[in-house]
Amino acid sequence: MKNKSTHFDTVVVGGGPAGIATAMHLGYHQRKVLVIDRKTSPMQFVNTSIHNYPGIKPLIAANAILQKMRKELHEFNVETLFGNVISIEGHTPNFQLQVKSSKPKPSTVTAKTLVLATGISRKHPKVDGDWKKWLPYAAKDHMSYYCPDCDSPQTAGKDVIIVNAGTVNSALHVARCIRPFAKRIRIFMTDDSNVPFTKDSETILNQSGFEWTHGLIREIKILEPGKRQQLLTVDGQTLECNTFFVAWIGIPRSELAVQLGIDVDSHGNIITDSQGGTNVEGVWVAGDVRPMTQTVATAVGTGVYAGVMIAHFLLASE
Ligand SMILES: Cc1cc2nc3c(=O)[nH]c(=O)nc-3n(C[C@H](O)[C@H](O)[C@H](O)COP(=O)(O)OP(=O)(O)OC[C@H]3O[C@@H](n4cnc5c(N)ncnc54)[C@H](O)[C@@H]3O)c2cc1C
């Protein structure tokens, strides 16, 4: 029977594929579950197909998959709230979360157990000094790719410019991943990247054997998406290609975990055991915010695993 109290068995922070997978498992087992999400998952804006997720032929765009997942949540009576969790305190079985939503005052939600499925924040390249001016080209209509594990084969036969918004190593990682597929690869190191471009970076790039240049992006011109695109630099170069591949750095969203005293590694990823459990009893973690390959399949897998473990934990504590 469903519990009628307003105290949740589990609150899931983050409604990307990982959080949804946890919530679905718990909802299926008739647990009282709430998913709180501020809706910035990459699957919200990627409108090209996902090729590396089993069982979805004919292929579906990432944003359509996320919509389907969200719809299915309601079939399992999982409650959802659009909002930003700003703080968490307490211990199992009484965690208190402060949530900022459209209401003027933050509200409090309580739960026996928690899942942090908050993902990572990715840094984009800047156009004319502003990363927001890159967003119209970010992972839309094959104008740029971001995920070498997911999209390297999509560059087959294409002339690709890797636009670097991270470290020299992120650029070289992308270059090596797409080398078996792309027709031509150039690396464009942005001088206003989040990681400073140094003499050492220059030496590493020269030794890499990849064609490269650096500068500041003044403008992007899309003549035909995914086919004819131009990157115009402040110093007057026009670089033309078929598509861009962004090399980025990601910052795990682990502030709430830190507040709760949960251990994170040197990159900020939340440390878990193999089942997604943390050093704080009653708190599990799923998806990209764990140190792992960032794909939808792994996010869903870790989400389900956390859901199964929480269901067992709740049974044992009743
Ligand atoms: C451009 C791009 C293309 C990709 N293409 C593919 C692909 O083709 N195939 C593939 O397998 N993978 C792909 N990926 C990777 C895939 O999108 C991620 O691995 C997956 O979305 C991770 O799921 P997640 O649930 O862990 O995190 P996310 O999807 O990032 O979801 C986390 C959610 O938590 C919310 N959140 C965070 N903090 C709070 C808070 N304090 N309060 C409330 N909500 C919060 C965020 O708003 C977000 O909605 C791609 C990624 C990018 C960037």
Structure notes:
With 318 residues, this protein is α/β, with parallel strands linked by helices. The chain has two domains: 8-121 and 250-316, FAD/NAD(P)-binding domain (3-Layer(bba) Sandwich); 124-247, 3-Layer(bba) Sandwich (FAD/NAD(P)-binding domain), CATH 3.50.50. The protein contains seven helices and 17 strands. The protein has helices spanning 17-28, 62-75, 148-151, 168-178, 199-208, 255-259, 296-316, and strands at residues 8-13, 33-37, 79-82, 84-91, 94-100, 107-116, 120-122, 144-145, 159-164, 184-190, 211-215, 217-224, 228-233, 238-241, 243-247, 250-252, 283-285. The strands form four sheets. Strands 1, 2, 3, 4, 5, 6 and 17 form a seven-stranded mixed sheet that branches. Helix 1 (17-28) packs parallel to helix 2 and helix 1 (17-28) packs parallel to helix 7. It is elongated, with a radius of gyration of 21 Å. It binds flavin-adenine dinucleotide. Flavin-adenine dinucleotide (FAD) is lined by residues 13-19, 36-43, 46, 50, 52-53, 62, 84-85, 117-119, 122, 139, 146-147, 150-151, 253, 256, 287-288, 294-297, 299.
Topology:
Layout: E1 8-13, H1 17-28, E2 33-37, H2 62-75, E3 79-82, E4 84-91, E5 94-100, E6 107-116, E7 120-122, E8 144-145, H3 148-151, E9 159-164, H4 168-178, E10 184-190, H5 199-208, E11 211-215, E12 217-224, E13 228-233, E14 238-241, E15 243-247, E16 250-252, H6 255-259, E17 283-285, H7 296-316
Parallel strand pairs: 1-2, 1-6, 2-3, 6-17, 8-15, 9-10, 9-15, 10-11
Antiparallel strand pairs: 4-5, 5-6, 7-16, 12-13, 13-14
Helix pairs in contact: 1-2, 1-7
The structure holds flavin-adenine dinucleotide.
Flavin-adenine dinucleotide binds next to helix 1, strand 2, strand 4, helix 3 and helix 7.
